[in-house]
Amino acid sequence: MSIAHLLEDFTLQAGGGKLHLLDEDALEEQRLAAFEQGYSAGWEDAVQAQDQSRGQVSAELAKSLEDMSFTYHEATSRMTLSLEPMFQSLVNIILPETLDRGFAARLVEQLTSMARDQIDQPMQIFVPAGRAAEVEEMLPQDLSAPTKVIEDPSLETGQARLRVGVSQQEVDCSGLLAAVSQAFDSYLFEAKEAVSHD
Predict the structure, then answer these.
(1) Residue 4 and which of 18, 33, 146, 186 are 20 to 30 A apart at CA?
(2) What residue numbers bound the domain in which 108 lies?
(3) Residues 82-132: tens digit of each pLDDT
């Protein structure tokens, strides 16, 4: 038994179907049109694939940069917190001792600077109670004007007042130390906040 009845017949029937023959120019035109259409479709597919790839790379790069930024800030905050004991020692012990040791030298330096502007004017240094002898020892012997070191009980440790003629200047090492301490406290507070929000 033949299976010919199951297959479609593509033979031309006499009088029923028309056969259209193309000349060489028309055939070339159709080929070019088909090529152009295929080329355009391929180009659009390539551009679309490139845009998708570029978008995916941009998204992955943005995510990586965000992760790196978060990791950097987290590491910085945690490192700052680990340095807190050192900061506390610096503010509470080292800086006060350093300022205290350099207090008399700082006063003499300021007084000498003021004396240059007002030659031969009487000079007075007001210091906290118990600091007069230390300051007197550091005064240069060749000062051109008489200099008095006066203890003033109203002044706190690290404070002094210098007077040359009518000019007066305040020295406040304790105020400087308080400002440094406050700056460290603010910095540590921000670091703690950053870590707690991670």
Answers:
(1) 18
(2) 103-172
(3) 767 777 777 767 666 776 677 777 777 776 776 666 666 788 888 888 888
